[in-house]
Design a protein that fits this description.
16 helices, alpha+beta, seven-stranded mixed beta sheet, 439 residues, 2 domains
């Protein structure tokens, strides 16, 4: 029935006969349990005509499943003190429940109903389309949300990674109940499901529940093909808004999650703009007063990645911010300092270890690692990988990130800020070695 592999520390992994993978992570001394079901597919698998279907489906499965109404689903969780939610990403769709130990039986049954037996009623679909359209409108009304969508659409033009996960009106109207049912079978197929529990859980009891609730999940009649490899196209987007502050986003290519230099890329982003002691915070805000808000981050997908910087500033200072961001990225790639590397490594480890102290984050982290690496990673293993990111590793990662000279930039705000997008792109392009490519 189960193929068992000894997992790290207390966590153990198992595989059901139909391919559903399990992670059981008992944490002694706690009085609650978190259960996560992660499907290793998301919006990247959508065609242009299907844009937004994964997110719409995530909404719809909560409207009724397994013969229960939306209200009955909510009551089934909350009667045992539980809470449930879900989120859709480009490469994963994640459902989770946090509850008391006696609620695990009901949580497992509920999550399996939601993923495997949703009702998908036509009247519910009509209402939920309207809800998602309101969500899209709300995002468009929020400048610090919209500017990210603008930048990503430039970075990955005409590709799933460049489209809004929420979709748009025409694509959402194409989603019929039968079309969503077929899409569900592909998106939540058992070969890409990971069921992960953490906290006050008995392993034998969990295995029985998993076999009962997920052991009969069937593969899709027509399996999904992998998405096309992503291409960082680069470009600029600008939007005129009557705002007090200009919103700026700058993006460069990054590294895939499984790349050996991906950990060093995280250290690079942390040095650049992670926290109050980072380069950008100190230079842009503290030393020069150019921006109130500035930070950097990284995104890591299966075949590509992205390093990003956000800044909010007065329109007249946007071009100076763009130049500063580009210059700091170039300098960091060439000459990281030992003190900033030590701070960045400590911050990354602290963030990851603190997240592991939240049961929900712990369960989701384990599920994500199984989808990415085939197994959960131990805390000591993660720490060792981060500690190995010395100056040479960060220089190598930084050089790869900037090698092509490609970038994307978006500016939303008064017209005086708009030149910042092209200034950033030209500054990075000039710094790239002739003919260089990311490898």
């Amino acid at each position: 029935m189960f193929g068992t592999l000894q997992g790290p520390e207390l966590a153990r992994t198992h595989t059901l006969g139909n391919g559903v993978r399990l992670v059981c992570d008992p944490v002694p001394g706690l009085q609650t349990v978190a259960m996560v079901v992660a499907a290793g597919r998301g919006a990247r698998w959508e065609s242009r005509r299907q844009s937004g279907w994964s997110h719409l489906l995530e909404h719809m499965v909560f409207k009724g499943a397994g013969g229960r109404s939306a209200r009955q689903l909510a009551e089934a969780v909350e009667v045992d003190g539980g809470q449930m939610n879900a989120e859709t990403g480009f490469e994963r769709t994640v459902f989770h429940v946090r509850t008391l130990p006696q609620g695990l039986d009901g949580a497992s049954a509920l999550l399996s109903d939601i993923l495997l037996r949703p009702t998908l009623n036509p009247s519910d679909l009509a209402r939920e389309r309207r809800v998602v359209m309101q969500e899209i409108a709300e995002a468009e009304d929020a400048p610090d949300d919209l500017v990210f969508e603008m930048a990503q659409s430039a970075a990955f033009a005409d590709q799933p990674l460049g489209r809004c996960i929420l979709g748009d009106g025409p694509s959402l109207r194409r989603a019929s109940p039968s079309a969503l049912s077929d899409w569900r079978a592909c998106l939540y197929a058992p070969d890409r499901l990971v069921v992960s529990v953490s906290g006050a859980v008995d392993e034998d009891a969990f295995l029985r529940l998993a076999e009962r609730d997920f052991g009969r999940a069937e593969p899709a009649a027509m399996p999904l093909s992998p998405p096309e490899p992503a291409r960082f196209t680069g470009g600029t987007r600008t939007g005129d808004r009557d705002l007090e502050q200009a919103n700026l986003v700058f993006l460069t290519p990054g590294l895939a999650v499984g790349d050996p230099d991906a950990w060093a890329a995280q250290v690079f982003a942390e040095c650049l703009g992670g926290g109050m002691a980072s380069r950008l915070f100190q230079e842009a805000r503290e030393a020069r007063g150019l921006a109130y808000a500035v930070d950097a981050w990284g995104e890591y997908w299966s075949d590509c990645g992205m390093i990003g910087v956000f800044a909010g500033c007065e329109a007249g200072r946007a071009s100076r911010v763009a130049s500063l961001v580009a210059d700091q990225m170039i300098d960091l790639a060439n000459a990281p300092r030992e003190a900033e590397l030590a701070r960045a490594r400590a911050q990354l480890k602290a963030g990851l270890f603190m997240a592991a102290e939240s049961l929900l984050s712990r369960a989701e982290q384990a599920a994500t690692q199984v989808l990415t690496f085939g197994r959960p990673l131990t805390m000591s293993e993660i720490g060792e990988r981060i500690d190995a990111c010395d100056a040479a590793a960060v220089r190598r990662a930084g050089s790869r990130i900037l090698a092509s000279g490609q970038s994307a930039a978006a500016v939303l705000g008064p017209p005086a800020a708009h030149p910042a997008a092209e200034i950033f792109r030209q500054r990075l392009a000039r710094a790239a070695p002739a003919g260089a490519q990311m490898t």
